Recover the amino acids of this structure.
């Protein structure tokens, strides 16, 4: 089964731009083969503004996200594995979605899901998984 | 600001059909102006198989979801307000997303978000909202 993450990134990117919000990606630079300016990387993470006014030629594929961006006036071709995206969120109000896959977060969602079941047991017997 | 729900429904529908999963909608029938067979409604909710093999002419708009479906051999035009959709999930493994807006669930997500902040405080100072 493929990851639902690229589908959700495309959806939220579209929702944000339709609502005049500025989409940002939080990216783990560990697996990204791009020389970003060091000043922009903090704790192995970088925040990239991917709004149509900030970058060009954006393609959100199912495996890679690709676009052209300028850093200090120099145009760079950026290619990021979808699996390195930790979140997409809007600059204006922080709304969006996280895709962190670490165990602590997984555990939190499992707890939430169990609480959800407990509260909703009588309303539906279906099981739901929060997409991570 | 418009709802992100229709964007997420389109994304997960596409992800499921790309993965040969069968998308189902859980719908609150309270605000739906369609005469569904009574036997299919339970506790004011109905589960609708919206896979391409089960229905025709699906349009997931930003306000309404519309399609044609057959009930007991009779074709019906179905129009459902997006706001009545409680969840989209796959029949095969239950993966998907809930859009319930009741206070208990909101509270659960708030708790999760706070725990997320606590665990991730040192990694990022950004605030995230889980899209409901």
């Amino acid at each position: 089964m493929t990851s639902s993450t690229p589908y959700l990134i495309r959806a939220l990117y579209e929702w944000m731009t339709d609502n005049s919000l500025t989409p940002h990606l939080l990216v783990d630079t560990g697996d990204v083969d791009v020389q970003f300016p060091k000043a922009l990387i903090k704790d192995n993470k970088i925040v990239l503004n991917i709004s149509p006014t900030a970058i060009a030629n954006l393609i959100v594929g199912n495996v890679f996200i690709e676009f052209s961006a300028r850093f200090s006036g120099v145009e760079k071709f950026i290619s990021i594995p979808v699996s390195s995206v930790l979140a997409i969120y809007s600059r204006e109000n922080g709304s969006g979605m996280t895709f962190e896959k670490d165990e602590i977060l997984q555990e939190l969602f499992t707890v939430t899901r169990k609480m959800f079941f407990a509260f909703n047991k009588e309303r539906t017997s279906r099981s739901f998984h929060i997409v991570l």
Summary: Strands of chain A lie at 23-28, 45-49, 56-60, 64-71, 74-81, 85-90, 95-98, 129-130. Chain A touches chain B at residues 1-2, 4, 7-8, 10-12, 14-15, 18-19, 21, 26, 43, 45, 47, 87, 89, 93-98, 100, 104-105, 108-109, 111-112, 115-116, 119-120, 123-124, 126-131 (CB under 8 Å).
